[in-house]
Amino acid sequence: IYSKTFSIPFLIRKYDPRSSVFQIQYFRTSVVYRNEVVTVKTPAFAESVTEGDVRWEKAVGDTVSEDEVVCEIETDKTSVQVPAPAAGVIEELLVPDGGKVEGGTPLFKLRKGAGAPKAEAAPTAEAPTAAAPPPSAAPPPASTVGPIPTTMPAVPPVPAHAMDSKPELLTGFLCVIQVKMNRMRLRIAQRLKEAQNTCAMLTTFNEVDMSNITEMRKLYKDAFLKKHNIKLGFMSAFVKAAAYALSDQPAVNAVIDDTTKEIVYRDYVDISVAVATPKGLVVPVIRNVEGMNFTDIEKAINLLGEKARKNELAVEDMDGGTFTISNGGVFGSMFGTPIINPPQSAILGMHGIFDRPVAISGKVEIRPMMYVALTYDHRLIDGREAVTFLRRIKSVVEDPRVLLLDM
Fold first, then answer.
1. Closest C-alpha among 279, 59, 91, 81 to residue 185
2. Which terminus of the chain is less hemmed in, N or C, by CB atoms within 10 Å?
3. CA distance 213 to 221
4. What is the rounded average pLDDT of the residues 89-97?
5. b/e for 92-112, b at 16 or more Cβ within 10 A?
6. Alpha-carbon span 27 to 25, nearest angstrom
7. Contact predicate 44/67, CB 8 Å
């Protein structure tokens, strides 16, 4: 124990007309000494998450400042950052890198206030040796893997521990690296396979003439940005069109309860929007889209996208969802068949916009066109409903006035 509690008397002058005695009141206070060691535990997870894998950002002996991230806990839905509660030095890691933890599991020990002065004095102590030649100036040691050709293609960044885990795999000019799949990637793979095994998936296609929506965006994007401080994109048009089509075709917004063998219809529209992150595909949910306009949708997409890029999405941001939209067009995709996001019954796939020759009133014109795909669970949704749903989306995106006229 590195703290001591003691009492300090404070004289309080309370005058009582019936007495000339001053009252003395004692306050109890405490002083926390430097070098106090605290144990930091795993924060509580959301209800649907029971455990996660630890990935350390710091090592034993590292100096950290208050609120600096010490480790990240990867769950099957999101990542949870664990910051240092105070400035100090990491004294002990209680869980190995990649180890599984539950809520409340002790993670590491931190010695408060220690090490900070040393970190500031380190440059001065090493100053006399600064004139020494840098290590890179020395001739490289003999290597067992041979010279690396200058035409070797670039490889994506790999975690530092990956090279240490399988050094025997480095032979000749070939480099084979094995990296453990994180929990999020494993969960994505499991859910996609579950969708294939459970749903009777069928995909129908159509194409959308993007001329009108492109012209509208070109005409109003500057004014929209000035007023709302966000950019006007194409995604809001498809999200709003999907909400309109889902209200028109309620079976696409429904789901089969395999336990009770019942069809569950929803009178609300919560649309999951697929977002690619370095750790995998996440699908945050825009709630109650049926009551939103284009501006509301753009703000919601911008907020969720920013949280995804900063790795700040919570489990609550991804729970639920009655329908999913995946936009492969941002990567240049021309055509594809999306996989249903269980337990939903359908998913809309957007693709790239390309100029193509199309027949307009008996004449060939060059128009910006997009292929769209709807993958649906054929156990619940018939072909007529699926095609009608996709044509509703096509009509709204090609002419947003359809929404105003409710046609």
1. 279
2. N
3. 11
4. 90
5. ebebeeeeebebebebbbbbb
6. 7
7. no
Q: For residue 127, is pLDDT > 50?
A: no
The residues annotated as belonging to the active site are 378, 382
Confidence of residue 407 (pLDDT cuts 50, 70, 90): low
Query: Who contacts 98 (Cβ-Cβ below 8 Å, separation ≥6)?
Result: 53, 54, 55, 180
Beta strands 346-360 and 323-327, pairing class: parallel
Q: How far is CA 62 from CA 68, 84, 109, 127, in A?
A: 11, 12, 12, 21
Cα dihedral sign, 162-166-170-176:
negative
pTM for the model stands at 0.64
Among 297, 295, 328, 302, residue whose Cα is nearest residue 221: 295
Beta-strand ranges (E) seen in 342-400 are 346-360, 363-377
Alpha carbon distance 301, 93 (integer Å): 38
Concatenating the DSSP letter of every residue in 145-177 gives: S-PPPTTPPP-----HHHHHH-GGG-BTTB---
Q: Given a cut of 50, is residue 30 above it in pLDDT?
A: no
Structure tokens at 75: 């769950």
32: closest CA among 5, 65, 67?
Answer: 5
In whole angstroms, what is the distance from residue 273 CA to residue 270 CA? Answer: 10
Closest to 322 in 3D by CA, of 250, 378, 382, 235: 250
Write the single-letter amino acid at 89: V
